[in-house]
Amino acid sequence: MPYVGGITGLILLGLWLFAIFDVIGTDESCCRNLPKSMWLMLVIFLPAIGSISWLILGRPEGAALPVLGVPFGKAPEVPYRTAVQPLGLEDSPRYLGRSQELDRRLDEWLARQGTPDGDALGVEGDLGDGLAAREAELDRREADLRRREAAAQPGADESGSSSDPPSPNPPA
User: Fold this and answer.
1) How buried is residue 55: exposed, middle or buried, by Cβ count under 10 Å (0-12/13-18/19+)?
2) Average pLDDT, 10 consecutive residues per value, the chain (172 residues)
3) Domain locations in the chain?
4) Closest listed residue to residue 46, CA positions, set 74, 77, 19
5) Which residue, of 9, 18, 65, 94, is most buried by count of CB atoms within 10 Å of its CB?
């Protein structure tokens, strides 16, 4: 049993060297929990604790031991997945076909209405004429509303104006 300490020392030395080369060979973006430089200092200055910590907490997930034919200091190729980027609706290949079909159906519907430019929908051909007609309609409605309010007020005379409302305190 006198050689147990020597064998343990050799195993720890091998683990320490493996951890140092593994930290150096690992890509910066693949290190977990600490930056690569911190892992390297931890492994160098605290050999046993740092090496075991690197293997458990710092090594990339899914990394395997080096295989024959792969250089010892180089990290094994691990297929890391990038985050899936969401696609916008217009990026979907189904969108273009669906959009074209809806445009075609709208054109057919407008043709059935009898006017290809959309007058059946209340859209005027000349924007200025449409705005003038809309303004005239709003003015007519506003005048009608004022007439109704004047008629609803107590004490309204024939002209549509109202007299002053009676005061709540009669003169003494």
Assistant:
1) middle
2) 71 90 86 88 90 86 58 53 65 72 86 63 56 89 93 67 54 53
3) 8-76, 93-152
4) 19
5) 18
